[in-house]
Design a protein that fits this description.
2 copies of one chain form a homodimer. Chain A has 464 residues and is an alpha+beta fold. Chain A has 2 domains: 9-343, BirA Bifunctional Protein, domain 2, CATH 3.30.930.10; 356-462, Anticodon-binding domain (Rossmann fold), CATH 3.40.50.800. In chain A, 38% of the residues lie in helices and 18% in strands. Chain A has helices at residues 19-37, 51-54, 83-92, 132-147, 159-169, 176-183, 191-200, 205-215, 221-229, 238-256, 328-343, 371-383, 398-404, 416-420, 434-439, 450-462, and strands at residues 16-17, 41-44, 48-50, 76-78, 101-106, 119-125, 150-158, 218-219, 263-266, 279-288, 302-306, 322-327, 356-360, 388-390, 410-414, 423-428, 443-446. Chain A has a 9-stranded mixed sheet. In chain A, helix 1 packs antiparallel against helix 4 (132-147), helix 1 crosses helix 11 (328-343) and helix 7 (191-200) crosses helix 8. Chains A and B meet through strand 1, helix 1, strand 2, strand 3 and helix 3 of A and strand 1, helix 1, strand 2, strand 3 and helix 3 of B.
């Protein structure tokens, strides 16, 4: 016999049941609606890719990739994100110059401690003028979280600005990405810890402190741009200057789209992945719009950026892209907490309520339960699109059938005599009111009129 | 530079784009609607399971399981079907006595030649009286393929009948499952080939021929039951007798549910998997209901059966189950062929048609393209749920904007003068009619009335 512990799902994964799936699907539908409004077309890729496709795309995170065992076929790995598979597809589709695509899928990362990564949903543009698609993505973020009623701030930064800062601070070119990875931890760890990591990575005390003095700044977009422009030392760096020019363009677009008040320019935002080349962003929760604050701590619930070189890395053609990914599991955690506060129900509800319960009553030993007759009626109702149920017993007792119909709005009642006359009884079920229940015998209708009568009754209960 | 060949998806997998995803989603939605009508609740499990969960569940097919590489964590494998993960879940949920669940998910099999297995969707019952849920599953099959307009036959058999036949034919108990696997190939291979395999598996010529004389029979359900009952030799086998009694019960239920004419009792149907214990079925296409026959050869498009012992194999509690799985990829292939016959379009359409195209016109060098004004209008329309687009150029040419708006029903036109007066032009686009197009200057509306006017125009074009 297997132990119960051995009958679990693998670490970091879970089963989804009933209401939880419905909530997850609601979230996905809300996001898709916004993406399709912006011209998004759906896209799907395999759960595993050739290992070579994923190689050298993720920097230090590459060690977290799940590989498939060598069983004599191609060397494959589970997808680590949805960006690289999309870039792989774009790299050979020379007929596609511009596409907005979205994808709903799980990604797999061997994190320690293992956490559930859930589904992501991403959205991309192809070749377009700088900052225009970037601004549209930020507008999409605003629309999605308005629709989900989650108050958010979008932290922005730009890889060109960040790399420029590191240059000015004295970080050597070969250390820029690894310093970037360390700095990205500032949202979870204090500066002292990050500083220690920078020293371990070979930075001098002086350089580390200069990095620290820059990356701990954040604030309103226009104001931060002004502060950085007025810094004489930074003004000498061409790369940083290019990044700031982009940010100014972006600021004007965000003001036009009325989303400027949703963003903050945060120099500590670095994003771990290697492939970003320009604007990067992460969405954090600031308040739960139902007024119940503080919301659960879930980290960033959406993130993305511009990756202009990734498609070109496959050697066939360059194609600038911007992308965005929603952390569906984290959004689920937020909204599930909100739902639970409201309903206080225990566990996922597995039962889907039927609209009609089909019963059979009869007297004595001669009564055979009318099973096939109940089936015949069920089939008629199913064919008419009605959710109908009946007892799976051959001769169910009356009380059993009453209990099973608890909460179902309409009953169809079969009796031997009525059937012989080509009739059935259709009755509204009055929840919790035994007296009404017993007095109300329902209505005799001819078998041919059954479906119409049931639909009429259902419509009247719905309008109560 | 990577070769183009190295930029493909792994063998047996594919990318899904645009219209193809929409068609697949339509199929899934059609099936879900039927399943929810029958009380189905959605369910989802991880893409990989602990390897021990999958062990000894699939007989000879076990060698087709994909394993994850040992990277220092738990030993895991990709799910091979959706039945075993569900049984794993049920085995420890002692609070669940009866559940109808469905799951939409991919499964992974290392077949040679590798073929795409796509998504499956399954539906299960828990503890219920024999043949009642089985009959409901067959009714669900009928409803689903009626809704999809695909003409089908459901091939039925029963493991007890089949095992009984093998016993009477002289197959030793230890060879029953392997003989069963060989016989199951009769839908693709001629009897001579299957016979050869049986001899290789150690059957004598005589036993093989007796097996052959039985399993090549098929026909209408009641008629086949009668034929088998009247066979004096078979009548002596208790197991076969039990199976036939079940089949008679099933026949009466199917007649009541008006699906008896959809089924055929086929003694060659064996199903490869170890875990079936009673009724088994496979759905094959007989005609494409649009009258275009013959349909593409796709093999069985749905299949399932009763597995009363699988949950108990985990050692915690027994729970009889019946299940059904739809081969979504194969159904997709059928319906995609039908769609292509109708529309003769080339390749998947990546573009989602906008409802409104926002243009800007102006004269001479002083015209700045009104980009942020176009963005402001776009944001208003997006917030109102309207699919709106604009050129991602700073100063787009008139002709470029006309070309980009091809097929879009409504244009919003911005001009410097109108904007200064707080106005924009809203215009219906007349596809392909240049003269009407040039004459119709559209309508000047105040900026505040823009959204309402656009919605009015969209409603009027929709009703054309």
């Amino acid at each position: 016999m297997a132990t119960k512990a051995s009958l679990k799902t693998p670490k970091g994964t879970r089963d989804w049941v009933g209401q939880n799936v419905h909530l997850r699907d609601d979230i996905l539908r809300t996001i898709t609606t916004v993406l399709e409004r912006h011209g998004g077309t759906p896209f799907d890729t395999p759960v595993f890719e050739l290992r070579s496709i994923l190689a050298e795309k993720y920097g230090e995170e590459s060690r977290l990739i799940y590989n498939l065992e060598d069983q004599g076929g191609e060397a494959c790995s589970l997808r680590y994100d949805l960006t690289v598979p999309f870039a792989r597809w774009l790299s050979t589709r020379s007929d596609v110059q511009h596409v907005k695509r979205y994808q709903v899928a799980n990604v797999y990362r061997r994190d320690q401690p293992v956490i559930s990564r859930g589904r992501l949903r991403e959205f991309y543009h192809g070749h377009l003028r700088p900052m225009i698609p970037d601004a549209e993505i930020l507008c999409i973020i605003a629309e999605v979280f308005e629709a989900l009623k989650i108050g958010v701030t979008v932290k922005l930064n730009d890889r060109k600005v960040l790399d420029g800062l590191f240059e000015v601070a004295g970080v050597s070119t070969d250390k820029v990405r690894t310093v970037s990875s360390a700095v990205d931890k500032l949202d979870k760890a204090p500066w002292d810890e990050v500083r220690k990591e920078l020293l371990e990575k070979g930075l001098s005390d002086e350089v580390a402190d200069r990095v620290g003095s820059y990356v701990q700044r954040s604030g309103e977009l226009r104001e931060m741009i002004k502060r950085l422009e007025s810094d004489a030392e930074l003004a000498t760096n061409a790369r940083l200057g290019g990044g700031l020019a982009d940010m100014k363009l972006l600021a004007s677009y965000l003001e036009a789209m009325d989303v400027a008040d949703k963003v903050s320019f945060d120099l500590s935002l670095a994003r771990g992945l290697d492939y970003y080349t320009g604007l990067i962003y992460e969405v954090v929760v600031v308040e739960d719009n139902d007024g119940q604050s503080p919301p659960p701590q879930v980290g960033s619930i959406a993130a993305g950026g511009r990756y202009d070189d990734l498609v070109g890395m496959y050697g066939w053609r360059p194609l600038p892209c911007v992308g965005l990914s929603f952390g569906i599991d984290r959004i689920f955690t937020l909204l599930d907490a909100r739902r639970k506060k409201k309903q206080k129900s225990g566990g996922p509800d597995l039962r889907v309520q039927a609209e009609v319960y089909i019963m059979a009553f009869g007297d004595g030993d001669g009564f055979d339960g009318l099973l096939t007759e109940r089936m015949r009626v069920a089939r008629q109702l199913w064919s008419a699109g009605v959710r109908a149920e009946f007892s799976a017993k051959v001769r169910p007792k009356p009380q059993e059938q009453f209990n099973a119909s608890d909460g179902v709005p309409v009953a169809v009642i079969l009796g031997q005599e009525e059937l012989e006359a080509g009739q059935v009884r259709v009755k509204r079920l009055h929840v919790g009111d035994r007296n009404v229940q017993v007095k109300d015998k329902g209505q005799l209708v001819p078998m041919e009129g059954l479906v119409a009568e049931v639909k009429k009754l259902l419509a009247s209960t719905a309008s109560d």
